[in-house]
Specification:
The protein has helices at 10-16, 18-36, 45-50, 52-61, 65-73, 81-106, 112-118, 120-127, 130-136, 142-162, 168-186, 192-211, 216-240, 256-272, 281-298, 304-315, 319-324, 335-351, 357-406, 455-464, 474-484, and strands at residues 418-422, 496-499, 502-506. It is mostly helical and 511 residues long. It has two domains: 10-352, no CATH class; 385-506, no CATH class. The protein has a three-stranded mixed β-sheet with strand order 1-3-2, with helices on both faces. A hairpin with a 2-residue loop joins strand 2 (496-499) and strand 3. The longest helix has 50 residues, at 357-406. It is elongated, with a radius of gyration of 26 Å. It starts with 9 loop residues before the first helix and ends in a 5-residue tail after the last strand.
């Protein structure tokens, strides 16, 4: 192989980035540290513990075959929650390093030293986002999603290395590896697809900045690679032949006007920044990238590629809405913190020059960025704490219900009953600081509006604690409802009723 490359190798880059990596780990411990020592788990995990094989079938129907393969390879079937949390934590550190190394490979040489100094800015803002608290709270897929982000970063690093190799055989081998890694990552979790596009957009910005031209050939190659990966992903999905409509795509429904309305509403929500998941960082980022482009135009140092990639960065958080035409869950919006983190990183690099007055400005901006990341990590840490407390309360409630059942005269410990819940019990503990999209919701509360109410999830949760019951059929649930309406609700001692082979527990009058 004949490689012309003055850039540091990954190992050399890590050696020169020790301080940034250490800062990243400290912040990560600050937000995720509690999770390393927790055995709490969230909604969906109870069903996985009951039957992970059935869950694999469900994932295959969602075109998440990569998620199935990952969990099989790392033996996460009988779910070891403590180990999967540690694996997730480690992989977050890995993709923080890989993404920064990827930026380093593309950044202009005159910015290299400045980038190495301030690279932690991207990591802190990206990994501290509460959006990741929501997705990584799912113990059944947290490690796989983190691995998926590692794979798309690694795929782009390999692709960049391939561009420097003259030997066609090795070049083609690396191109094939890039495609394989990209395709597998898409098969883990669909939210990785818009993140891949945004990563390419940010690299295109750096490429245009470095080459001082629009670099259309580079962009065309990236589009072709992405097209091949996307086609292979959809071919594999069709070969598996299992599908359902859980993951809605508004464009396929043909209601184009509604899709456009959804995208517009999503954009308005992003601009408002009024939730635990959003903030004014996005608005600030838009302002910064606009100011930068005006400056470049004024200095006559811009090009169409730089303007195009800047627009792509601004629209980055909208990619998932644009691709689906639907309002998506917050936990799928990886692009939101990425856009903010990348633009803030650029800000610190561009401020780093020899002018004395910029020392004070740089110091002020760095403090603002650190506080911004700190605030996000506080929310993230509190979300994890909230769910830990919620889990403890659910365990206590499950034990209380089980004790009530076992104290009944008719109870036979050698018999497996069907257990039916009506109503719901919210987690109202004062120690739960904040609640998120899913985080903080009890197993005895979630899905209560659906036909089975909480029965399916609650019985699966009880089973994870060693209390074994059958979930009801639709007929049993409907038949038992007429008895439930006459019962008092928990904590009344008469809230439990036995009818032949099934047990009714009335949690509340809200049925």
């Amino acid at each position: 192989m004949n490689i012309k490359n003055k850039k540091l190798t990954l190992a050399e880059f890590i050696k020169t980035s020790k301080i940034s990596i250490l800062i990243t780990i400290i912040f990560l411990l600050f937000g995720y540290g509690q999770r390393l020592f927790s055995i709490a788990f969230s909604i969906d995990t109870e069903l996985y513990i009951r039957s992970y094989i059935s869950n694999y079938t469900w994932w295959l129907s969602l075109d998440r075959w990569g998620l199935v393969l990952f969990n099989k390879f790392f033996k996460l079937g009988p779910l070891p929650i403590f180990q999967t949390n540690i694996l997730t934590f480690s992989l977050i550190i890995v993709y923080s390093v890989l993404l920064n190394y990827l930026f380093y490979l593309y950044i202009d040489e005159k910015y290299e030293k400045k980038f190495i100094c301030w690279q932690f800015v991207f990591s802190l803002i990206f990994i501290s986002s509460p959006i990741f608290a929501e997705i990584y709270n799912f113990a059944i897929l947290n490690a796989a999603v983190a691995a998926g982000i590692c794979l798309i970063a690694l795929a782009q690093i390999i692709l960049q290395k391939a561009s420097l190799i003259k030997d066609k055989f090795y070049k083609n081998c690396l191109l094939i590896l890039t495609i394989v890694l990209g395709t597998f990552s898409f098969g883990i979790y669909q939210a990785i697809i818009p993140l891949y596009i945004l990563i390419v957009t940010s690299l295109y910005f750096l490429q245009c900045l470095k080459e001082k031209n629009s670099s259309f050939n580079w962009l065309l190659k990236q589009i072709i690679i992405f097209g091949i990966i996307a086609i292979l992903y959809f071919v594999i999905n069709n070969c598996i032949g299992i599908s359902n409509d859980y993951l809605n795509n508004g464009w396929l429904k043909g209601n184009i006007s509604q899709c456009i309305i959804n995208i517009f509403q999503a954009f308005k929500e992003l601009l408002k920044g009024k939730s635990i998941f959003y903030n004014y960082g996005y608005v600030i980022s838009i302002g910064l990238i606009i100011i930068y482009n005006i400056y470049k135009i004024f200095k006559k140092k811009t090009n169409f590629g730089l303007i195009l990639s800047s627009l792509g960065l601004v629209l980055g958080p909208l990619y998932i809405f644009i691709l689906t035409g639907e309002i998506q869950l917050k936990r799928t919006q990886f692009n939101y913190p990425y856009t903010i983190a990348f633009i803030f990183l650029l800000l610190m690099i561009f401020l780093q020059n020899k002018k004395a007055h910029n020392i004070y400005l740089r110091g002020l901006v760095s403090l603002v960025i650190l506080y911004f990341a700190y605030s996000q990590m506080m929310i993230t840490g509190n979300l994890f704490y909230t769910d830990s407390v919620r889990y403890q309360k659910d365990v206590e409630l499950a034990a209380k219900i089980q004790n009530r059942i076992e104290s009944q005269e008719w109870y036979d410990k050698n018999k497996k009953y069907t257990l039916i819940f009506y109503g719901r019990i919210k987690n109202q503990t004062v120690n739960s600081y904040i609640k998120g999209e899913i985080i903080g919701k009890s197993f005895f509360e979630f899905d209560y509006k659906y036909h089975y109410g909480v029965s399916d999830r609650a019985t699966a949760f009880l089973e994870s604690l060693g209390y074994y019951y059958n979930a009801p059929t639709i007929a049993e649930f409907d038949e038992a409802k007429k008895y439930a309406t006459t019962l008092p609700s928990l904590p009344n001692k008469n809230c439990i009723f036995n009818k032949e082979n099934y047990i009714i527990v009335k949690l509340s009058d809200d049925i």
